[in-house]
Amino acid sequence: MEQSVSDDRQEFIIEVTELLERAEQALLSLDQNPDHNPRAMYDEVFRSYHNIKGTAGMMEWNQLQHHVHMLENELMKYKESAQIPKTLIGWFLRGNDATRAILSDVQPNFEYTTPDALAGNVSGATPELVAEVTEAMDRVSSNLMSLERDPSRHDLIDSIYRDIHSAKGAAQLFNLEPPAKLSHAMEQSLEGVRAGRVAIDKALTGSLLSCTDLMQVIVRKPADQHQATEVDFLITMLASLDSGGAKVASVDSGLKTGGAAPVVPMEPGSAEKADSTIRVQVSLLDRLMTLMGEMVLVRNQVLQYSQKIEDLEFLNLSQKFDVVTTELQEETMKMRMQPIGTILTKFQRVVRDLSGSLGKKINLTLSGVETELDKSLIEAVKDPLTHIVRNSCDHGCETIADRQASGKTETSNIAIRAFHEGGQVIIEVSDDGRGLHREKLLKKAIERGIVTPEKAAVMSDRDVQALIFAPGFSTADKVTNVSGRGVGMDVVKSNIEKIGGLVEIASQAGVGTKITLKIPLTLAIVPAMIIRSGQDQYAIPQVKLVELVRVERNEIEMFQGKPVLRLRGQILPLVNLTEVFAMETHSKESEAINIVVLNAESAFFGLIVDEVIDTADIVVKPLANFLKTMGLYSGATVLGDGSVAFILDVIGIAQKSLETFTQRNQEASAVLAKENGELGFRNRDFIMVRMDARSKHAVPLSQVSRMEEFKSSEIEDSGGLKVVRYRGQLLRLISLNQVLGYSAQDEVKDVNQVIVVKSHDQLVGFRVNEIIDVLSSSDQLDTKVKDSPYFAGNLLTKDEVVIVLDVNHIVGGSEVGSSDFERQNLSRNNYKILVVDDTESVRRRVSQILNESGYVSEVVAGGSEGMKKLLAGGASFDLVVSDIEMPEMNGYEFAQNVRGQASLRDIPMIAFTTKNTEEDLRKAQDVGFDAYIEKGKSDLLIGQIDELLKQSEKRTA
Amino acid sequence: MKVSMVDASRTEVVKEKTRQFSTFSLEGRIYGIDVMQVQEVTKPLPITPIRRAPSFVKGLINLRGQIATAIGLRELFGLSGDGSLEKMTVVCRVDDVLLSLLVDSIGDVMELAESSHEPVPSTISGHMAGFIEGVYKTESSIISVIGLKKVTEEIAKKSAA
Questions:
Q1: pLDDT for A279-302, tens place per residue?
Q2: Conformational region of residue A449, where left means phi above 0, alpha means psi within -120 to 50, and beta covers everything else
Q3: For A705-753, what is each residue's pLDDT tens digit?
Q4: Is the torsion defined by CA of B135, B138, B143, B146 positive or negative?
Q5: Are A656 and A632 contacting, i.e. CB atoms less than 8 angstroms apart?
Q6: Starting from the edge strand earliest in sequence, which strands make up the sheet with A751-759, in order?
Q7: A47 CB contacts (<8 Å, ≥6 apart)?
Q8: CA angle (A111 as vertex; A108, A113 as ends), nearest 5
């Protein structure tokens, strides 16, 4: 027991010597007789090294431990084949000699660099190294581009330098010559920049960016001869750019020192950082996720069981189990989460390169890069997103000349925005390019036979835009090498849908395009709604779910033999799940009906189910292929009670059941709308009001904008009209009692209830005695008995008759000085409006609003520019919408200037601004604005424009 | 019980190649499935029916969190008798899909010599022959070996229809 330390050591040395002997024998056997049981021999060597390393560690003999570790590491590379190259056996033998030297306390003379590694024959790059270098190069590349935008950021140069330096260190450590050489050259050229000898210009940035790309390739394939020439080329290139003339030839010196002293330079403090993260195989995470899923199921079963048990101890335990499992689940999910920035930042590069090759100026802005989503999903959205971004650069953004011609800034903008919303990750890619042209799209679609000309005529804009997702559709006039090969958006769509996501497009010709991806947070566990149909339970993924509706059976109508439901003015096709499954229906006639409104590729339909049971987080289990191809089920899951339930394939069911219905859907809407008369009574909701009459009156909710209360003191007289100031403009009040002839004067009250209605895009207030209630009715409007032109008809409720008012008629009939309102209805596309605002997004939004409602608009960024336009274009503008707060010439000055011109004295001007005090308003009026609208209330803009243009027409007429 | 087969026509008994089969019976006949494809044998578990699937696809079962598709072999093969006779299931894995085959009863695992293998006798009906890879003769019986690939192909064909 009382062994001395030296005895201990002596014994250890003997042991090691024995082990070395065995390793030696095995190595020699491998050398001379490679076919004789190589696996056993290899294992012998490996075991020996491993034991020596372990014991050396115990003895705290660091030098020995490190030395043998290096040998073992090298040996590990041949574990698979158990074939050690002959050239290396000598190296291992010399390594053994060095081990003996260390044992005798002699400094060994041993070159750790293996001959093969030097010759580049070893694919020695470990996955960790590849990952490290790739990440470092990604950072370098993104920092380079930031630096290009903002050359004053010297901190970036340092960070770039650091990353290159560590990549070089790592490459040297693993004896990967080409990456080491290249990174060394990169480092050299940056030293020039750091020393102030060389300016970091476009050429240098470009070369360095190419280097980062090449680095990522050669770190994987260090021995590839094709790359070698490219490496040399880039090194020469960098050297030539370094005007200081630093020689690239000194690469070798860097390599030599790197061989023996593998020191990876680290930024200060990164040691702790390194300790706080570890790299884990993705497959391990996947396995963990699967197990987590199982655990959630077991938890669910335990909870369900616990409801039947009265054992308090058990209940208590199951509660705790529930809490811990939930937490565990959350943390496990987080483990796989990665910020989407890992792929988004790559697009900086894509856009930069593309804009160069396309001859456009494109600026990419990213937001929400920190938004996290499951790693596998990040991988899955990468390609679709790349495609969208490339498309946007190629087709969306115009050339500089085109942009100038349409009055836009030279630089196109693409914005990618990622954020969480309702358990999904939303990724929006928007550009301010040329947008989608309806006619152009339709022409292509008809040419390609995707739609018939008849159908094209009735398609909504939304459906037309969705055409770009149709297989075989490409709008590019010519195929470019960037995009437009006729494959594309349909693949994007199907790839996104494969992972349970959605793609939506919104575009406005001349203004831009926005493509929205909605991606579930994770694939393994999805929130779902559990429903029952007959005896079966099914799960419906929440992403497909729009809403739940419960209606009486008689509310369901038949349209061309198919059941439909009128839901808030829309015709919703219905599908009975029991019919889909060809099961017997045995529901009673009077039953209320549960409808699950689903979104299948933007086509909505209602699924009739017997019962909506609950929501649950379900673990998706894959199905056998032959079941998936049925187009009814997308997966299966195990419910809390241990039974199996299918996950419904919403899209499949829609395709199966709505085949002939989808195109008829719209026609149905149109027909039914017509059936309802011209009044647009598609909505079943009405606001009921009390007047000075016995019967109640109702206003269709679809035409009601707001319900307001005005104090009597707020109501002013304006030329025989009652008006109130409302949202920055005057709101005309109509007394329903007067119009309908119930009484000559409204009751005098402190507070007057007013229904603000919208008629012909104009807001008007209906003064009523009292607003009673909202009335919902599915009944047809009885139009037979109408004793006033202002009545649309009667509605029979259970206990009374309600008179429904014809809002348009009342507004039109009480219009001052105009007997026929319709004649004045503007044909908006005859009018041209100038929008002046210094904010790009506002300009875009306003011109969008204008274009949507039919007006023609032009935008300028400032007052003086606006003046130029107004004067140059002669009197071709009919109205001006201007901001107030603007640099250079503000809105007041602009208005004064405009009014100062004789030709522009009468042009209607609207101030559209965020300044909203009384004083601002007065000032605006003083300088000559005709109306004043707050930016938050852009919905009022069109009404006001209509109004002003009408007045100006009247004046000139 | 192990049944080692010695083919009378051949004398070299040493080191003869053999295959192991899980056997089961349906309507009194013995069938075999390569033991490597069989995961386990269980009593029938509660089945979730699959609407609109071919009738021999009985439904899904929950096998300790894994989901298997239950197949009524009797119906698939077009044999007489009804499902109430199916008292056991053989769970097999084909291309990462778990199939749970409903059978009447389970037999032994048999080790059968390759030499006793014979192609499907021409007397077996065309439909049935499609699922049989071949037969093995034993002293007491003839064992029909089922090719699971052929079973899944048939299911896929029927399901698509």
A1: 777 788 878 877 887 788 788 788
A2: left
A3: 777 788 888 888 776 678 888 776 778 888 888 888 787 777 777 778 8
A4: negative
A5: yes
A6: A704-711, A751-759, A762-768, A729-735, A721-726, A716-718
A7: none
A8: 150
- Burial pattern A862-879, b for ≥16 Cβ within 10 A else e, equals bbbbbbebbeeeeeebbb
Mutation to test the A interface, candidates B62, B63, B76, B100, most A Cβ within 10 Å:
B62
pLDDT score of A631 more than 50: yes
Residue A343 and residue A373 in contact, taking contact as beta carbons nearer than 8 Å: no
Per residue in A750-794, pLDDT tens? 778 888 887 766 788 888 888 877 776 666 667 666 667 788 777
Quote the Cα angle for B151-B155-B160, to 5°: 155
d(CA A371, CA A598): 27
Tokens of A11: 């014994």
Best mutation site among B58, B60, B152 for testing chain A: the one with the most A CBs within 10 Å?
Answer: B60
Residue A265 pLDDT > 50, yes or no? no
- How many C-beta atoms surround the C-beta of residue B15 within 10 A? 6
Query: Is the separation of the CB atoms in A551 and A595 below 8 Å?
Result: yes
Averaged confidence pLDDT in chain A: 77
Which has the minimum average pLDDT: A201-215, A446-460, B5-19, B61-75?
B5-19
Across the interface, whether the CB atoms of B156 and A629 are under 8 A apart is answered yes
Nearest chain B residue to A645 by CA distance is B48
- Interface ipTM: 0.83
Q: Which residues of A touch B (CB under 8 A)?
A: 294, 297-298, 536, 580-583, 621, 623-627, 629-630, 632-633, 636, 638, 642-646
Residue of B nearest to A578 (CA): B51
CB A484 within 8 A of CB A394: yes
Helix ranges (H only) for A38-176 are: 38-58, 62-76, 86-103, 115-119, 127-149, 154-173
Q: Six-digit token pair at A400? A: 């500089």
CB contact under 8 A, A646 and B49: no
For residue B60, the chain A residues in CB contact (below 8 A) are: 636, 644, 646
Min mean pLDDT across A706-710, A910-914, B106-110 is at A706-710
Residue tagged 């053994």 (tokens): A96
Q: Say if residues A339 and A425 touch (Cβ distance below 8 Å).
A: no
* Residue contact B152–A626, C-beta within 8 A: yes
Residue ranges of chain B whose CB lies within 8 Å of a chain A CB = 46, 48-53, 57, 59-62, 65-67, 69, 97, 99, 152, 155-156, 159-160
Query: Is the confidence at residue B106, as pLDDT, over 90?
Result: yes
Q: Considering the entire predicted model, what is its pTM? A: 0.42
Render pLDDT for A793-845 as a digit per residue (tens, 0 to 9): 777 776 677 888 888 778 776 554 333 333 344 577 778 899 998 877 778 77
Q: In what order do the strands lie in the sheet with A502-508?
A: A361-367, A411-421, A424-431, A512-520, A502-508
Among B49, B60, B156, the residue with its CB nearest the CB of A636 is: B60
Alpha-carbon Rg for chain B, nearest whole angstrom, is 16
- Is residue A259 over pLDDT 50? no
